[in-house]
Structure formats: structure tokens, C-alpha cells
Prior knowledge:
The chain has seven helices and 13 strands. The chain is of the alpha+beta class. The strands form four sheets. It has a five-stranded antiparallel sheet with strand order 6-7-12-10-11. The radius of gyration is 20 Å and the shape is globular. The chain binds flavin-adenine dinucleotide (FAD).
Amino acid sequence: MKELTDYSLLYHNTFGMDVRTAHFVEYESVEELCAFLKQKNYELPLLHIGRGSNLLFSGDYQGTVLHSLIKGYEVVSETSDTVDVRVGAGEVWDDFVTYTVQKNLYGAVNLSLIPGEVGASAVQNIGAYGVEAKDLIVSVDTVCVSTGELRQFSNEECCYAYRKSIFKQELKGKYIVTHVTYRLSKVPVWHLDYGNIRTELDKASCPLTLDNLRRIIIRIREEKLPDTAQMGNAGSFTVHIYRYAFLSGRRRLRESSCRMDDRPLRMERKIVGTCRSTRPSGVGPCQSGGSYRKGNHGSCRSSCCFGKGKVWY
Ligand SMILES: Cc1cc2nc3c(=O)[nH]c(=O)nc-3n(C[C@H](O)[C@H](O)[C@H](O)COP(=O)(O)OP(=O)(O)OC[C@H]3O[C@@H](n4cnc5c(N)ncnc54)[C@H](O)[C@@H]3O)c2cc1C
């Protein structure tokens, strides 16, 4: 286990914020994590991060930041049609997608190139191109922050909804994900009717294989979103866009009448651009706020200049 003090989070967030945390703890096993939580001798507040691709720090963090280095893939059950793979929370999400493609397993390919780690996929219910993590998740293994005890959540217990789970709602900050078990299909399952996937497949006139579909999805994504290495960002802000519209001119609209999925990309770009313009040198103190599809901080434009030392996620 690595324990550091006054540690820079520059390489732990995709906005590239050069903020510091009072304590940084990186663990490699469930045992290490349980032992750390049980000794209760850590500085609060506690924040667990993955790759920081859905976080925005607006200043130094006066607490303890935890990060998982739990790795590994284990086939835990198999039928003639499906394979259940249990994956360490510290694995990079896209490495897992690569693994499924290499093993000719169907289900995850549409989620290619989503930044972040496996642990966060179960918290965020990541989704793209008509597929969500919840469609694949069988169970989520966790450790309770207050007791250090293990608990497994079934898919149903995770209460998945659009980019939401129980870990972002009622149990926010209360459980740490250590492993996620995904069910993949050995028989072909395609999701091709979302966005321009079919058009791009036709254009490429290549056979429909997992490999080719992954290549096409990666190409579409790279055209749409800026590379975080070039420009700090947290992906698109679909829910923010809805909130922006809701807060800044459409107060009459009831939440239930808004459709989050269909907000125009034009505004999405504007918000990403706003984030960029408040951080001209690439790193430095954050003056804008945002969080990917979180939805209750307003847009970057309407909620600039959050207090220092906060983290939005
Ligand atoms: C360029 C870009 C494109 C993106 N595209 C998409 C997309 O297409 N679809 C999509 O859904 N998202 C997308 N996102 C958002 C982001 O990739 C996801 O939200 C991802 O799941 C975040 O993973 P992370 O490891 O970086 O988590 P972080 O940002 O570090 O953390 C996110 C949340 O998960 C919690 N968390 C992290 N790890 C654990 C753990 N082990 N246990 C408990 N809680 C944990 C954190 O506390 C926080 O609440 C995009 C982001 C970027 C920058």
C-alpha cells in the first residue's frame, strides 16, 4: 500500500487540475483496503477516485484520496452462451473492453474508449451507443467504508438508472467497489442502431466483427470529443445541458417533461469550451464547475467560481 502526503493529483484527473491532496492512499488488494478502513486513523473527508474523468477539483483537497490498484480478470462462471468475468476495480475500463474483443465476447464493444476504471463503471453506470454498464453487470463487490466489511450487491440492488446507481445516490461515499462481475455473450449480440454506427459501417464496407466495430466506435468518439491529453474535459455534459436550459430560461418546464438524451451537441461544445477558457494555461486553479451527467451544479457557465477546495462528481 502506498501512503503519501501533500500529493499532486495532476495525473489523476482529466481536467488536468494541479491540485494537491493532504493524503493519498493507493491499495492493491481487498485485504489492504479493509485493514486501512478498519484502523479509522485517516483524515476525513474520504474520496475514492478512479481515473478522475468525471471529477472536477476546484482546489486542494483537505482529506484523504483513495485509489484502487486491484487488478485482474477471472472467469467465475460459464454456460454454452455466456461467460461471467470478475474484474478488479483498478483495471482501466477500455482494457477490459479490449479483453472482451480479443476473447470474442459480445456486449461491451459499444462502450469502447470510455475513459475511467472498472470500479467507476459500476458507480456511474457508464453508457454509450445504446449500451450501458448495467446491461452487463451481474454483481458488484464492495467494502463498507464505516465497518471495513465486505458486501456484494446484485444488479437489482444497485438501482441502476441513466448514469446513476445506488452508489451515487443513497449510498454515496459509503461503499468502495473492489470488483465488478460482467456477463458477456459468446453468441453475437450487436447494437448498431444508435447514432451513425450503421452509416460508418457501410462507409467502411468491412465485415461486421467485434474488432471492426470497436475501430469504428473509437473513430466516431475521437472525432466527437477532445483528447483529454490535449484539452482537459470530462466528456459530454448531457444532464448539465438539461439543467442549464432548465435553470436559465425555462423555469416553467417541469423536470419530468425534459428529455436528457436529446440535448444538442452545440451546447455541449459550448460548455466544454467554457471549461477550457477558464483554464488557459492547461493547469491551475479551477474556476468553473461541472460534472459529467451529474446534473445539479448548473452548467459551467451558470456556476463558475465554485469555492476553492471542493470536488464535484
Ligand atoms: C473524454 C471523455 C469521454 C467520456 N465519455 C463518456 C461516455 O461516453 N459515457 C459515459 O457514461 N461516461 C463518459 N465519460 C465520463 C467518465 O468516463 C465516466 O464517468 C467514468 O466512469 C469515470 O471513471 P473514473 O475511473 O475516471 O472515475 P472518477 O471520475 O475518478 O470517479 C467517478 C465517480 O466514481 C466514484 N468512484 C471511482 N472509483 C470508485 C470505486 N472503486 N469505488 C467507489 N466509488 C468509486 C468516485 O468517487 C466518483 O463519484 C467521459 C469522460 C471523458 C473525459
